Every structure is written in structure tokens, then in C-alpha cells.
Predict the structure.
Amino acid sequence: MANIKSAKKRVLIAQRNTERNTAFKTSIKTAVKKVLACAQSEDKTELNALLSKVYQLCDKAVTKGILHRNTAARKKSRLTKAINKLAK
């Protein structure tokens, strides 16, 4: 552990931010799983709503600096491809 007061504070802030970022990433993963589960059913309106929620979460993660913009784009692209594959 650091000896300087400001360094100790930075350690605590880093821990808090790590927990927040992990929780946000987990919520994205959960939303993706819900979309994939819904894609196997035939409810298109619910699927579109859930897909829009995943897109929103990914975009929000980019603006908050949790995900890189290319990572979010890759997640959205792969999810869309998977849905289209299941729809066939």
C-alpha cells in the first residue's frame, strides 16, 4: 500500500472504479444472453427491444470509458450476426 495520502486515495478510487466497470460489463453480458435466448423464440418485438437495450448499454460504456469504441462495435456486430444466423 502507498505511503502518501494522495496515493492511498487514488488506490481507493481505482478500486471503486474497477467495481463499477465490472458491474457495467456484467450487465452488458447479461443483456446479450437475454437477446440470444429471445432470438430462439419467435417474439420479434421483444427481441428488437432487448437488442436496442444492448446497443444502448454498449454505447453508454463507450462514453463512460468502460469499453473501447471498437470493442463495443465488435460486440454489436457479432450479436447481430448471431441473431441473423438463429433467425434462418
